[in-house]
Amino acid sequence: MKIDEMRHKVGDDIYIQGAMYTGHGKDDFAGGLCKISEIRMGVSAGERVPFVEVEERPGYQYNYLMLLDKQDEMRETYGTQRGHADPDLRPEFNEGW
């Protein structure tokens, strides 16, 4: 897939899955709708595919095709909830990495 073939564009919302880390809780993220801030091509499993970055989680890139496969499932999980940083700053969850 090429960038100009994508259903989503910069500025569109897309669902991003939440993430919780036992060794670096400061990077925990509550999933939900996020605004696409950048799209670029990258490599995944030896194939060139689009990756998206979202305003709510700068510095993280997501394989667009993998996100597309889970949009319906995440819509049911998150509904209208917006994705956002949800850091766990307790020392015991930030010493392992």
Features:
two-stranded antiparallel ribbon; 15% helix; alpha+beta; 97 residues; single chain
Describe the secondary-structure layout.
Elements: E1 13-16, E2 29-30, E3 32-44, E4 47-54, E5 62-63, H1 64-78, E6 84-85
Antiparallel strand pairs: 1-3, 2-6, 3-4, 4-5
Could you give a quick summary of the protein structure above?
The protein is of the alpha+beta class and 97 residues long. It has one helix spanning 64-78, and strands spanning 13-16, 29-30, 32-44, 47-54, 62-63, 84-85.
Structure, described:
The chain is an alpha+beta fold and 97 residues long. It has one domain: Beta Barrel (Thrombin, subunit H). 15% of the residues lie in helices and 32% in strands. The protein has a four-stranded antiparallel sheet. The chain is globular, with a radius of gyration of 14 Å. It starts with 12 loop residues before the first strand and ends in a 12-residue tail after the last strand.
Please give the count of helices.
Answer: 1
* Cross-sheet strand order for the largest sheet: 1-3-4-5
Structural class: alpha+beta
Backbone CA Rg: 14 Å
Stretches with pLDDT under 50, minimum 5 residues: none
- How many domains comprise the coordinates? 1
If you average the pLDDT, what whole number results? 94
Q: Give the quaternary arrangement of the chains.
A: single chain
Q: Give the H and E element order.
A: EEEEEHE
Main sheet specs: 4 strands, antiparallel
Proportion of residues in extended strands = 25-35%
